[in-house]
Structures are given as structure tokens and as C-alpha cells.
């Protein structure tokens, strides 16, 4: 089985975790994870760990842009964004369900406790959530540009309003051009 990035380099047996064998590339540091091995490990791993913020030293994740072929069945791997505040993308084979992890991607996922949810990343629900996040980020950037230095304060007021029991009346008061006219 050859590396889908380096093409001529042969992948060797490695252990991603105890009871999780995978195939690694000695040249680019990428890793191939077969679906069967992953599901076996998931059973051993037990219940899903709660997601957490990343706290370790920064990891250099080398994203490879060009299309890759599945080292097992030669299909084109499809790239999926991981979302959840990460910039990671994973390459997935829709035929054998294997996953290609670029250098440090496993470590980065593990740092967020997302390594035991890899199988969910390729589902419609997960991807819908990712698109929602991306849209939010996009709009956030537009608002930030539009409102400039006031944006932080606007967000703070909005958050305060949202949890206020008199929200409706406060909004009416603020938007009334003259709330003191009879
Ligand atoms: Zn490689
Ligand atoms: Zn495949």
C-alpha cells in the first residue's frame, strides 16, 4: 500500500494508539486509518469523550491540497472539514470508509477529544453543522468590518438583552424614536 501523498513511498505498520494499528508514511508523516480497525478500536475505547479546547503546544498540521487516491481501493478521497473551531480537513474514502490523516491531524483531533468521533465527521448532520459554523464565521467577519470598533460592544449589549426578562420592552424603548411622547 503506497502513500497517497508521496505516491511511491510504501506505508508501514504503525500504532496510532494502543489497539489502533494504522499505516504510516515515513516520508510525509501522513497516516492511513482503515474503517475496520477504527471501529474495532472504538469498541475498545468505550464511550465518546467530551469535546474540549486544545491546550497543548501548537501542532503544525500539513494540509495537502491535491487530490489523493485511496491507498486501498484507488478511489478519489473526498475532503471533509472537521469544523468545531478547527481548521482541519480529513480525506475520506466513500468506498471503503478509510481515512487519510495528514501529519499531526490525529494528534490535533485527539487534543480536542474529536479522535473518537471521526466516523461522525462524514455524516450529513456533522457537515450541516460545519456549514452553519462557516456561515456564522463569514457573517461575523462582515459585521466586524461594518461596525468596526463598536462591534464588541454591540455583541455585549445583544447578549445582555437576549437573557434579559424585559427584552421585548427594552427593544421597544430603544427603537421608539421618542419613547417619552404620549
Ligand atoms: Zn507520504
Ligand atoms: Zn477506499
Structure description:
The chain has helices spanning 35-45, 105-111, 118-121, 124-147, 151-162, 167-175, and strands at 12-17, 20-24, 31-33, 78-81, 89-92, 99-101. It has 182 residues and is α+β, with helices and mostly antiparallel strands. The chain folds into two domains: 12-122, no CATH class; 127-175. Strands 1-2-3-6-5-4 form a six-stranded antiparallel β-sheet. A hairpin with a 6-residue loop joins β5 and β6. The longest helix is centred in the C-terminal third of the chain and has 24 residues, at 124-147. The protein is elongated, with a radius of gyration of 23 Å. The mean pLDDT is 93. The structure holds zinc ion (ZN) (2 copies).
Helix content: 25-40%
Averaged pLDDT, please?
93
Total count of strands: 6
Give the strand order of the largest sheet, numbering strands 1, 2, ... along the chain: 1-2-3-6-5-4
How much strand content do the residues show?
5-15%
Distance between the termini: 81 Å
**What gross morphology would you assign?**
elongated
- The number of helical elements comes to 6
What pattern of helices and strands is seen along the backbone?
Answer: EEEHEEEHHHHH
Secondary structure blueprint with pairings:
Blueprint lengths: L11 E6 L2 E5 L6 E3 L1 H11 L32 E4 L7 E4 L6 E3 L3 H7 L6 H4 L2 H24 L3 H12 L4 H9 L7
This protein binds zinc ion (2 copies).
The site of one zinc ion has 8 residues, from loops.
